[in-house]
Design brief:
Helix content is 41%, strand content 19%. By secondary structure, it is an alpha/beta fold. A hairpin with a 2-residue loop joins strand 6 and strand 7.
Length: 205
């Protein structure tokens, strides 16, 4: 895998993969950087530059074979395998994530759900039996889980993140409205709808 690829480039690869998958579902076999750019609002030159970091996926004048490019991007993003994911938090947001069906065909599967409420532990949540947060380390280590989602109040998020990392988690999707302090070898992505809406309201008149 090439070294020192800018993170902003890595961030666009899943967007390309999603668009290519949709094209394949629509029955297309070949596409071009121009067509992808029109769909995504990204310049064709930027798309070609991004993909060039990882090799030659297309030929000038003939475009990209969609099936092949999908396969290659899945390998680059390491989603040509299935990753087990731990979910911490069985409240409204956690429940929605546990019921979400869009993980499975994109490389991820929620493997276990944790909560600290005695009223919820042991109860069913969709296909899962809610586990106690007291058992986070044991379950993460036994299953070798590397990815977790945090959907809990901000005041508990750092403590839970520390425990997940101590048990071997190296990637966290954080829905709690707080920035986490993590080691350099741990990746964190933040999803806070309010932050995104505040970013948009700046442009409203």
């Amino acid at each position: 895998m090439p070294a020192n690829i800018p993170d902003i480039v890595i961030g666009r690869l899943p967007v390309y993969l999603r668009a290519l998958t949709r094209l394949a579902q629509e029955g297309h076999e070949v596409t071009s950087s121009h067509e992808l750019g029109q769909r995504l609002g990204i310049s064709s030159a930027q798309i070609r530059k991004d993909l060039s970091h990882f090799g030659g996926f297309g030929k000038q004048g003939t475009g990209y074979q969609i099936g092949y490019l999908v396969e290659q991007l899945r390998q680059v993003l390491k989603v040509d395998q299935e990753w087990e994911v731990a979910l911490v938090g069985a409240g409204d947001l956690g429940s929605a994530l546990a019921h979400y069906k869009g993980f499975g065909d994109r490389g991820f599967r929620i493997a276990c759900v944790f909560d600290n409420s005695p009223q919820k532990v042991g109860q069913r949540l969709g296909d899962f039996t809610i586990l106690s947060t007291d058992d986070i380390e044991k379950n993460i280590r036994e299953r070798g889980i590397k990815i977790a989602m945090i959907a809990i109040p901000a005041e508990k998020a750092q403590e839970v993140a520390d425990r997940l990392i101590g048990a071997g988690v190296r990637a966290i999707l954080n829905y709690a409205p707080i920035n986490l302090n993590v080691p350099e070898n741990v990746r964190v992505q933040y999803i806070d709808p309010v932050v995104h809406m505040q970013r948009m309201t700046y442009y409203l008149t």
